[in-house]
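Onboarding guide, step 5: your first structure request.
Type a short instruction followed by the sequence, for example:

Predict the 3D structure of this protein.
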Amino acid sequence: MDILKIAVDWAKAELVSTSFFILCGIIFLSLSFGLWQFGKTDLAKSYIVPMLVAGMFLMTVGVGLFFTNKSRIIQFEVDYNDEPISFINSELERVDRTLKEYKTIVFASIPVIILVCSTVIFLVDRPLWRASMITTILMLGVILLIDGLAHARISDYKSKLDKALIEIKN
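The system replies with structure tokens like these:
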């Protein structure tokens, strides 16, 4: 099993995944601009700032993750060539931390925030509040979708790392 190739392939898949954060950020920014130019109602105008903030947030997350994973690809080869067992162990530790973060943040906190936002929509009848809560729900939905797929990829990557560690020790 060529664990270096598997690690690089995983990181490249993450680059594609983070590009979707950037793409969704651009969509949110475009919607904000469109509503700024063509929005006539108070509710339409209320979406301008929340969409702008969500778009900037998604773009920032996407760009940050893109460059983190891009540099990781180069570092994988160096680390693996230095000491394969140490590379696998450090990757397993990083993957375990990431899986715990997904469990806590993505799959526990985000649904609770979505629930709170949906409750606020029903309780508050102000256009800015509704627009902010709906935009937050949309943004968190995007994050859940992208991170749900990333969770599946990293779980598969972890199982391959476990197998590689067993093979390399034998």
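Each response can be followed by summary notes, for example: Residues 3-169 form one domain.
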